[in-house]
Write a structure and sequence with these properties.
10 strands, 6-stranded mixed beta sheet, 2-enoyl-CoA Hydratase, Chain A, domain 1
Length: about 240
């Protein structure tokens, strides 16, 4: 039996592939356990510099597998009290989402927890929480508006209508749209470009960019200034 998530590391890049194509990579406990374990491996393995998350088959992730509701523990799958944001948000290494098809509800939230997204022309994004009556819990209400602005986020979440790859690009949800054949090669090229830069400075910049999510503009600006002064001391400028 194939694993529900595949993991491959090449030249410092971890490719994490959701592998339940017959269920459109729907979320079950086993998938979450493997996904969380592999993200932990990305965090803890110094040889890994970048991670890419994608899906096998025609879908990225169709959300919760309705067939396992009531049987699988999806809120605390490993029994360690950690949910998806608890695993992904502390990662100091870039995580790129390569969105190959439908990203629906929980699958959409998984995508939003990545640092940025590259989409296939086949990608579609749907927030169906309001339609099916399930409360969001992996950051939909905050991460979506951060990506596309509050007004567009309201339209997407209130109507539950699909957003095409091109519309996702237009509203800033994804960085690039490529053909299905180009998706993984292009995403891996971006990952290689990231691997080629100074990792300490890149990681510092990632933290400083994300600082703005927690504090005011002035405080985040000051954090960069303070970090710059510390950098100058370390390199012996003064």
């Amino acid at each position: 039996m194939e694993k529900s998530v595949l993991f491959d590391v090449t030249d410092g890049i971890a490719l994490i592939t959701l592998n339940r194509p017959d269920r459109h990579n729907a979320i079950c406990q086993d998938l979450l356990i493997n996904l969380y374990n592999y993200i932990d491996e990305v965090v803890g393995n110094d040889e890994i510099r970048v991670a890419v998350i994608t899906g096998k088959g025609k879908s990225f992730c169709s959300g919760i597998d309705l067939g396992v509701i009531g049987t699988d523990n999806l809120l605390n799958p490993r029994g360690d009290g950690k949910d998806l944001p608890d695993v992904m948000r502390p990662c100091k290494k870039p995580i790129i989402g390569a969105i190959n098809g439908n990203a629906i509800t929980g699958g959409f939230e998984l995508a939003l927890n990545c640092d940025f997204l590259i989409a296939s022309e086949n990608a579609r994004f749907i927030d169906s929480h309001s339609k099916i009556g399930i409360h969001p819990g992996w950051g939909m209400t905050q991460l979506l508006q951060q990506a596309v602005g509050q007004r567009m986020a309201k339209q997407i979440s209130f109507t539950c209508k699909p957003i095409s790859a091109r519309d996702a690009l237009r509203c800033g949800l994804v960085n690039e749209v490529v053909t299905p054949e180009e998706l993984i090669p292009r995403t891996m090229q971006i990952a290689r470009d990231i691997c080629a830069v100074n990792q300490d400075i890149m990681s510092t910049m990632k933290g400083l960019i994300e600082k703005r999510n927690k504090v005011s503009f002035d405080e985040a600006f000051q954090a960069e200034t303070d970090s710059f002064q510390e950098f100058l001391r370390k390199v012996g400028v003064f």
